[in-house]
Specification:
The structure is a homodimer of 189-residue chains. Chain A has 189 residues and is mainly α. Chain A has 9 helices and no strands. Chain A binds a DNA duplex (30 and 30 nucleotides) through helix 2.
DNA sequence: CCATTTGCCTAAAGGCATTAGGCAAATGCA
DNA sequence: TGCATTTGCCTAATGCCTTTAGGCAAATGG
């Protein structure tokens, strides 16, 4: 019989596509096998288990997101950088809901260390270079930005803002204005 | 044989406890049946299906959270109210991680309408009475506060802030300071 | 060209969700 | 109190998912 040419990378890629189609928590080793037209057990030569699959998809999503973030930050500073970076998260979540959910998957410490998580933190810090914050406020601000981006996107995707005025796009824009204003006037302790 | 005295309410309660013990997504009809020392099929007289169980747990968690929020807001205003309300979310998530996760579970529209979701939005609006915002900025601010609270708690629970200085408690306090400052100086469009 | 490795397969066991059908306990009404 | 009905939990069965073991054929490399 002809071999399918599976690799962990191709499986993670296929898993990511599957996640966008059916949702990250519907990503199952069985469904992935069907997608590659292969028997389920075959995947276990390339994947440790189902958790391993999910982890690989998460790592892939984090890398993609970090790449987009880096591209968005290039040549920008201040509010411009802030908005561009924030939009990367929001747009990625809209284009790739399954991958975005994967990026929020809780990784075990080992995978987390090998992930693009560090790049994300670095980029957020880079945005803050356009504002006048010193440690430890810079760290507090990094955490706050991460919270707003993640929180907003996650509530928006959950449909939290969809059935009421004003429209979500407008809130997003005004929240970015507000964050910019806040970072320019970060309160003293 | 002696009857177990199951009801949808007792099952939701047991499910909530189970969620706190093993995590919301490990809450399964089977595990719940074991907890009540009853056969799995028996639960289907009281629950439509597994989704129904999760929905009931989510509704229960949302009610509990709204009750705590209401208690925290009573007699407070301004930053005091803001911080008390924010701490309700954070503390609830720490005490009841499974229930908190349940509260974030995506409900179908019908369940969402019957949920305490509306009370949550009302309470957040009540906090903003202590600040000088008019529509539509008030709505933007409601959405932003929701995003920060949810985002921070969720990143913190995911371990995002645990292995780095400064300590998460300090960031949380400073972020609440920052939000208070921002609401007092909300930027004009 | 053949030995070894590698990749996908069949088979099987165990878990969860869900439905159908049955019997006994509880309930309600004369 | 006595009996009919309803209700609650049970057994049985199906189907899908995960994971492991063991086998055969394709690819590889000396």
């Amino acid at each position: 019989m002809v071999r399918a040419g599976l690799t962990p990378e191709r499986l993670a890629q296929g898993g990511a596509e599957l996640a966008d189609e059916v949702g990250f928590d519907q990503v199952t080793v069985s469904a992935l096998a069907r997608r590659f037209d292969v028997k389920v057990a075959s995947l276990y030569s390339h994947l440790k288990n189902s958790q391993d699959l999910r982890t690989r998809i998460a790592l892939l999503a984090l890398e993609e997101l970090a790449d987009r973030g880096a591209a968005a930050l290039a040549g920008r500073a201040g509010k411009d950088a802030l908005a561009a970076f924030a939009n990367v998260y929001r747009d990625y979540a809209r284009e790739h809901p399954g991958r975005y959910a994967a990026a929020r998957f809780r990784l075990d410490p080992e995978a987390a260390a090998a992930s693009a998580g560090g790049r994300h933190a670095q980029m957020t810090r880079a945005i803050l270079r356009g504002y006048d914050l010193t440690e430890p406020d810079q760290t507090h601000a990094v955490r706050m930005l991460g919270s707003v981006f993640h929180g907003y996107v996650s509530l928006e995707m959950g449909g939290g803002f969809s059935h009421s005025a004003p429209d979500s796009q407008e809130s997003w824009a005004r929240i970015l204005d507000a964050l910019d204003a806040l970072l320019r006037n970060w309160p003293a302790p």
